[in-house]
Each structure stands twice: as C-alpha cells, then as structure tokens.
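Support request, please re-run this one:
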Amino acid sequence: MKLKQIVISIENSPTRLYDVLKAMGDAGINLRALNLVDTGAFGQLRLLVSDTALARQILMEMSIPAFVNEVVATEIPDEPGSLSIVMLPLLKAGIRIETMYAYIGASVKSAVMIFCFSDNDKAIDVLQENGLRILDATIFDILE
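Re-run finished. Output below.
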C-alpha cells in the first residue's frame, strides 16, 4: 500500500511555514507526519495529512507550489542496526532510497519509516519478501 505525500517548496521564512500549518489546522486537516529540509532560500516540506485533496487545494489557493507523490511506510524494530538490515535487500535489488524519514510507531518497540524509492512497487515486494509489513493510512488513525 502506498501513501500520498504532499511535497511543498516553501520559502525559508518562519511566517510562511506558520501560514501553511495554520491554514491546514483551520481547515481541519490533521498532520500525520512531516519532514522539513532546509535547502537555502527555500525548504522542502513533506507532509502526510488526513485529507490530501483538501490540503492540495488550500496550497493552490495560497499560491504555494506543491505536488503529490507516493511513499511507502513500514514498521521496523526500534533497535540498533535494524534500518541497515532493512536496507540490505533493497540495495541488493538495485532499489534507491530517494527520501526517508521516521515516525515513532504505535509501540516503544517499533518505529515507522516512510520511504520514497526509485521503484516503490518493487520495494514493496522486496520488503514483504523479507517479512516487513507495509502500512496503510489507517496506522495514523490508530495512533491518535
């Protein structure tokens, strides 16, 4: 199962980030996970939200460039070395990790990793073949 992620090119300004987050909250959109990276004058904000279509509409109304792409979320053990263990079969399959960030999982024994791969479908197959569970959007509902 792939999740929809919104990627926003956002001016590196405290007020611009606030404006985006305030508009989402005012519209009743819940942030499920986010990642913000500074790239100089602009940053890149990645969001998993409760209503992707509405969030995209709000951003368009705010004249903020954004696009939606697909990401894969999987639960991994929260212990030293587990991420490299997950990565090895992907590496062997020739799958690149383009972006990744973590979300603390539903238990203290696991973390949720959110990935964008060079080939999401192939990565899902490899992860499942190696015993990892692919998460859908309901994981974020459970955590509330």
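The domain at 2-69 is CATH 3.30.2130.10 (VC0802-like). The mean pLDDT is 89.
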